[in-house]
UniProtKB/TrEMBL annotation:
Name of the protein in question: Cytoplasmic alpha-amylase
Catalytic residues, chain numbering: 192, 224
Signal peptide: none
Family: Belongs to the glycosyl hydrolase 13 family.
Residues given in the record as Ca(2+) 1 binding sites: 105
Cofactor entry: Ca(2+)
Record-linked Gene3D superfamilies: Glycosidases, Golgi alpha-mannosidase II
Record bears the keyword Metal-binding: yes
Organism name: Granulicella sibirica
Amino acid sequence: MAVLMQAFYWDCPKEDNQEHNWWNFVSEHVEALGKSGFNALWLPPVSKGASNTSMGYDPYDYFDLGDFDQKGGTKTWYGNKAELKALIDKAHENNIGCYADMVINHNSGADEEEVNPLDGKKRWTKFNPKSGEFPRDWNHYHPSRYEQFMVEGENFAGFPHLCHRNPEVYAAMYKYARMLIEELGFEGFRFDFVKGFGAWMIGMLSKYRYVKDGAEFSPYVVGEYWSGAEDIDQWLDKVNSVTDTQIAAFDFPLRYKLKDVCDLPNYDLRNLTDGGSVLMKRPAHAATFVENHDMGDSTIVNDKLMAYSFIMVHEGYPSIFWYDYYNNGLGRPGTPNGIDALIQAHHKNAGGDSQILHADPDLYIMQRIGWQDEKTSQPGLIYVLNNLGDQWSGTSVKTKWANQKFVPIAWDGHDDAHPDERTTDADGRAEFPAPPRGYAVYVPA
């Protein structure tokens, strides 16, 4: 019952003419995002990178949030600490949490080269940040006296790779995490490139007893493990074995299936029903998404709302991409044909187990059975995904609801017609159609 906005895209400060002003720019949209039903913002890395026009995935000074004149300027590409804090505070005023992007495995922008005495190689590993926090040298990276051979993780882009077993590195990452939650007010972490370091480090940063607003606080944590379903499943087992099983993973396998739904003619929708995704195997740990800042040449080209409709009605924690919502105009507030209508369906109706009622190469129909308690409820829904490009399609399915009227609340496709209301018979059967190359969401009236 929550929806995440990835509140940036690659080169967003430049592309939206908001260089060094992105925090203020996002803040201008916060009130509207709250009204649309977003519950959290995933913000880009907040620290000064190797330049002041960096996206932050090349951290130089973890404790410079845009207030020290180094690496080409004072502000980060997004702004400064005061502007970031103002954004987080405004988000909280609108009942929106914030997640910090954690890049803790590699660094860049070192001030000097130095020879590592363990292997005699020269590397850029001497860092003298102006914040005065976390100065470092070769012994803070691999190979170091604490871990000469990297037994966990992978190197990234040739950057110096932090050795978390060095107590100074370990302590600095704790200090950084505490600053983000206890001082700035973040509610959780998105860990970048978790292939690059041991799962135990995420476990330690996740299990720490943070204090927020005078009470102990446990952050939401999601990892970017860009791989297949089996690899992600093994990583989730490993990281959750050293936590309280609260760690999620972005569902890359599902995302690539959804790209094929949108971009490959005659893609077999039955592929969505197998166990080859985090969502289908362990939905409680699935962070679902359609696009993110890293997709590049793999961006979905056609009928992207088909993919968004799928993640918004199934289990998992769905993430909406800023560029799609705003720059591509897929938010479409005030209409039944965009992301905003799907957010409302997600919040109001998408509860209880998912049950697939029908799946063939061109048609997928699912019901969420709903749930309720003494305080709230989600009555459930019927979701139809139609892969045919030239006609409406549906079929009779047996639902859990007998003699129940259903109304369409969200739909889109290659036909602007309004779906009709439907009523199930005494056995719970009715035919539920969707537009060509589109979807429809029906809810009990």
